[in-house]
Each structure stands twice: as C-alpha cells, then as structure tokens.
Amino acid sequence: MKKGETIYLVSNGDFRESACTTCWPMQEDTLKEVAKAFRKLGYKTKIATPFDGKVHGFIQTQREGVEVFAKIDPKAPVVIVLSCWAFAHHVSGPLQTHAGPKLLLGNFDGTWPGLVALLNHAGSLERLNVAHSRIWTDGFTKDETFMKRLGEWCSTGSIRYSASALTDSDKLKLPAAAKRFGKDMAQDILRGRRIMGQFDPGCMGMINAIIDPAKLGAVGMPVEYLSQSDLIAEMDRVSDEEAQKHLDWLVRKGTWFDWGTNPVKNLVHGQVLSQMKMYSAALRFVERYGLSSVGIPYQLGLARCCPASDLVEGMLNNTDRPPVKSPATRQIIRKGEAIPHFNEGDMGSGVVQVLMHDIFAKKGIPTETTLHDVRWGREWEGKFVWVFLISGAAPPAHFGGWKKTRVYRQSPMYFPMGGGTCSGVSKPGTITWARCYERFGKLGIDCGTAEVVELPEEELQDRLDRTTNTWPIASVHIPGYGRDELMANHMSNHITMGYGDILAELVATCRHLGIQTRVAGDARKTFK
C-alpha cells in the first residue's frame, strides 16, 4: 500500500438490534483508535459502514454486507474492526471475492470481546479458503508490537506469524502403547461409526462450525442433520410430570437456582420446566437416530421459541444426570453416560468431544467434555491464564458436582425467553484440549495439554465481572502456548476440554483416521 492510500474500516456486528445498540459506543471508540493508529503510520481511513438512519453503524445481515462492499473499490485495503461479538457470515461472502488486502482487527478485552469475534472470523475465512491477516491489541497506539504488525500489513498487505509453537504430529515419537491404542480406537470408529447429530447448522454466522460431511464421513463420523422445529415438536410431547421429575432430581442433588418472580428479568419455574422438556426431547433424538453426540445451536431460531438450551447441554454432557425413559421401550436412554453435546452446533468441537469421550471411556477416566469460548485472559503470577467461558453448557462434573452448580437466568439482551445457565467454576487439574477445523480444504485438529488453575477468590471474581459472571468459567494455563501464539494460530472462537492427559492416545487415533494433527506448546516435548 502506498502512503496516503485510503483504508476502509468495516464495522461488522450482531444480527440482534439490542446487542448492536448496546455495543455501538464501544465500537465508535475503537474506530477512533484504529484511525489514529493508521494516521500515525501515514495512512488515511474511511468508515465504510455509515449509519443510514440507524442508531448504530453495524452491518447486521449478509445483505447489508454485500451492499457495503459493493461501494468499495474491489482492490482497496479493508479492515474488519471487531470490538464485540459479530456474525462472521455478514462479511465472509463479500470477502471471498474482494481482491484487496484483508485484515481482521480485534480488541483484546473481556467485557467487549472483539477477540472472540476475531477468532471466529479467522476460522470462518480459513474454512472458505480466503487469505487474510489477523491482529489484536489491548493498547492500540500504545502497543508497540501491534503498531509494528500493523505497519507490516500496510507495507506488504499481510502479517506473518510464527507457527513454531505448533508441531505436526507426524514428527513426534509416540509411545508404543499409545500407537496401539490409537489404531484400535480408529478401527472401532471406522467400523462402528459415530453418528453426529447436528441441528440446523450455521449458528450465529459461525461458518467455521460447519464441516464438509464428506470429510466427516470419511473418518467414520457421518452427520445426521436435524431440524430444531422437530425438537420443539418433540418437547411438546414431553409431559409436565416428566419435566418436573427432572427438576426435582436436580434440586435433590443440591443444584442452586436463582429463582425470581418476573419472567422478563428473572428465572422462573416455567422457563426451567421447558428446559427439562428439551432435555428429554434431546435424549429421544439420541435414541431414535443412534447418535454419538448432538449439537443444539439455539440462537437464533429457538431464542424466539423457547428458553435457553444451556442447562440442557450441561446435563447432557454429564454422566450424573436425570434418567429419561424411552417412550418406545420404557428403558432408560444411555443410563449413566455422558452424551457429548457440542454447544451452538459447533461440529469442530463435536468431533473432538466424541474422540475424547471414547478415549476417556476406554481408559476408565471420567468422560465429561465441553467447549468454551476463548474469551479473554491476562498474566497471573508470571503465567498467562486464559478465561475459558461459555453460556452454560459445561458439565457439573467439571465443577465438582451438582452441589457446586448454579443456575442463573440468561441475559434478556440475548435470551428474551430466559432459561437457566449451568454455571460453576472448573476445578483445578490437568486437561486435554483440542479443536477440529476445516482449513483450505483439509481436515485438521490442534491439541495439547493444559492446567486449570485455582485462582484466589478476588482474582476469579474480577475475571468473571470483566466477562459474564453468570456463566461457567475455567481458568486455564497452556504451557508454551501463550496469548499471542494462540491468537495467531487458533482456528475458532471455541476450544474443547476434558479432564485427564490423553494427548498421546488422541494424536495416535487421529493419525490412524488420517486427520492432520498439530500439537501445541510444551506438551509436544514429552514425545521426543
């Protein structure tokens, strides 16, 4: 780019008007900081998304994204400025055919999680085979590293990051026992298959959550595409009596509910009863279709039809859960088993949740798994400790059981019909983490081990207050894979975890399934 050339700033946003209105003041501040940074480097900027009569300047639909890019020179440099959550598909289509340099720029802030949107946009563009660059900051012009990288993009049209913290698994020496384990597990999967039940894929523009069914079928994981309208129909067939029994079971187990009386703002009995019906309905689908796992996107469609799915998801992901009898056989469906549920219908998590679940089970380790948002993080006692946070799908086993589980009403801004979270603090211990993705036509998995850290109450509460304090949290340190390494290379806003070190077995299984696998951070040192 030449000095003085105009760079277009695009404000991609949420579909939901309430979210866009709330987040616009922060976006305006971010746009000013970005313009200031480019000005310091000698470049002009132009905001490409005017208000046009709205109270904010966000793109809210793919149609609006198309209209905005139609007015931009197809060879001009563009920056997608992300200061909060945004739907990647609003701009992914136009970016597929835009010839100019493309940059995803996110703030690094817990309260205003542009970094989460950045990771989602990057994963989605990789899924669509779109070359681009990514950059993040918590200081803008005060951040010397950010300014240096921004200057690199201005000069060359791209930013190069090191991938040295990731090692191709083919270069690692696995223990003989792990290799035998992986071969047996892969053969079992390819012979018996693991049917993945995905309701209405494409939640909130997460194109990175959609994986080619041909590639999934080739590794023994065929997809059963399901309709969320059919889930509603099945919920209508669950009696109030059955739903109440599930709620009574949770209460007897010691689950704490933040009950109120105003359904617009509070958690009320009817909302949770609806969630209990969804729980039974989901298990009926599991039995009916022989599913190994299931993913309920909830947003956006179900958000206007019924209370949140998050408590349901946490229940499914847990081995200790209310029994559900089959209407056909009157037998309990998958008694004492965790049913891997991939939140928001994210198949990239579902694949590794199934793999981890089956490996855990074969090794006699508790099988609970969950995904989290890579929400934020900061240094603590010399370590970078991530805030892994999700809307409520984490299993109570990760907190230490139902007595340590709290159910709050979901935010009215995103969840107008309410419903409860499945919230708690993940216990300290070793975890295996992973993420499956499709990138430039290839199926891949990144993985490693990490430690869930027990933080002092004050530090933990501050992290919750800076993010979303009613959602489940895991405080995670990944040795050898810090903030910038993950932000530069991770293929999603989501990351999957389960307790126990099964990394060698996971890598060996992926090898035999033919999935390209990379091991991150210091964990790879154990395989030399």
Please describe what this structure looks like.
With 528 residues, this protein is an alpha/beta fold. It has two domains: 6-156, Rossmann fold (3-Layer(aba) Sandwich), CATH 3.40.50; 169-527, L-fucose Isomerase, Chain A, domain 3, CATH 3.20.14.10. Helix content is 35%, strand content 20%. Helix 4 (114-127) links the parallel strand 4 (102-107) and strand 5. Helix 2 packs parallel to helix 3 (89-97), helix 8 (228-235) crosses helix 10 and helix 10 (269-289) crosses helix 11 (310-316). The mean pLDDT is 96.
What's the rounded overall pLDDT mean?
A: 96
Tell me the domain tally. 2
Report the oligomer.
Answer: single chain
What's the level 1 CATH class of the largest domain? Alpha Beta
Structural class: alpha/beta
